[in-house]
């Protein structure tokens, strides 16, 4: 089978896409995969590191402030669409799967034009604009939460859950001792999402500096790392910018303090550990709050 997968922007889109690819690989030894992503976001580095063939297109999200870039982006959407047509005519996919992010817009549109089977996956309780737009005419929309299904009334919808939840079991386990923590001490994992959060990191500085009877790992995101590292003055706390395969560590945590991104929540559910969730207010439709409340209402967070 030959498939094209597209996702981009954040780990919340990229890691479910990787989980989907891994599941296809398990079931098809002759699988051929091509990933289409942006030229300047996380997926541009992460996907090639997994030895998956990668095609980059230049496209940006629309901004309320950058009017000039929006005008340029209209041209880039058309160009990206034409590029995707060429890519697909060359690769000849049996199916094209969009897993979120604005990069999927020209990819899925091109596949529809060529009458290739199309599928999209929505990770959040409230779908993004791109997925809502693309859902018209795709073969199936897959969702992570049953509460999402009502937003796709005109589509064939199936709730699968978030594929990233399986990362907890599929990824190589990370022992906390390998990161310098003691086996017999309670361990808290603190993470602010794949891109990090300067606001959340700053608010947690006093807390992590007060830790005495247990240990904590604080994953800050690349852009916040140096600042946080210089402010944390506690030997019970390790500060890291990023941890590859973080899901492999989650089961070893006694509690996780986290943003409420869909991928992280799926991993928390699968690991069955207590969580303190601090939803980001800077996301469309306040969807992290809705994500979090799905767990809270089930007394799972």
Itemize the secondary structure elements and their pairings.
Elements (H helix, E strand, L loop, with lengths): L1 E5 L4 H17 L4 E7 L4 H7 L4 E4 L9 H25 L3 E4 L5 H10 L3 E6 L6 H6 L5 E4 L13 E3 L7 H4 L16 E5 L6 H12 L5 E5 L5 H7 L5 E4 L6 H4 L4 E4 L3 H10 L3 E3 L9 H10 L5
Parallel strand pairs: 1-2, 1-4, 2-3, 4-5, 5-6, 6-7, 8-9, 8-11, 9-10, 11-12
> What structural class do the secondary elements suggest?
alpha/beta
Mean pLDDT: 90
Beta-strand portion reads 15-25%
Write the H/E string, N to C.
EHEHEHEHEHEEHEHEHEHEHEH
Extended strand count: 12
- Termini separation: 40 Å
- How large is the radius of gyration? 20 Å
Sheet with the most strands: spatial strand order: 3-2-1-4-5-6-7
Categorize the overall geometry. globular
Contiguous low-pLDDT stretches (5 residues minimum) are: none
Biggest sheet character: 7 strands, parallel
| Overall helicity | 25-40%
The number of helical elements comes to: 11
């Amino acid at each position: 089978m030959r498939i094209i997968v597209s996702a981009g922007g954040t780990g919340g889109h990229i890691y479910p896409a990787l989980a989907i690819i891994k599941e296809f690989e398990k079931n098809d030894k002759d699988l051929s995969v091509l990933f289409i992503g942006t030229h300047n976001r996380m997926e541009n580095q992460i996907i090639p590191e997994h030895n998956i063939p990668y095609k980059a297109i230049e496209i940006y999200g629309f901004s309320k402030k950058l009017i000039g870039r929006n005008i340029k982006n209209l041209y880039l959407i058309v160009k990206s669409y034409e590029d995707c047509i060429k890519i697909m005519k060359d690769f000849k996919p049996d199916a094209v799967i969009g897993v979120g992010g604005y990069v999927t817009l020209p990819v899925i549109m091109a596949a529809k034009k060529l009458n290739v089977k199309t599928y999209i996956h929505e990770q959040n309780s409230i779908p993004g604009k791109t997925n809502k737009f693309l859902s018209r005419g795709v073969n199936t929309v897959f969702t992570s939460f049953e509460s999402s299904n009502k937003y796709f009334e005109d589509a064939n919808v199936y709730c699968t859950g978030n594929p990233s939840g399986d990362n907890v079991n599929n990824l190589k386990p990370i022992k906390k001792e390998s990161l310098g923590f003691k086996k017999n001490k309670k361990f808290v994992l603190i993470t602010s999402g794949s891109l990090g959060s300067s606001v959340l990191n700053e608010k947690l500085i006093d807390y992590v500096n007060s830790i005495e009877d247990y240990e904590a790992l604080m994953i800050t995101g690349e852009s916040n790392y140096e600042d946080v590292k210089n402010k944390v003055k506690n030997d019970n706390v390790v500060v890291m910018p990023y941890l590859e395969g973080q899901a492999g560590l989650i089961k070893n945590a006694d509690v996780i303090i986290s943003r409420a991104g869909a991928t992280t929540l799926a991993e928390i559910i699968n690991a069955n550990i207590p969580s303190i969730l601090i939803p980001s207010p800077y996301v469309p439709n306040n969807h992290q709050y809705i994500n979090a409340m799905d767990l809270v209402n089930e007394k799972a967070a």
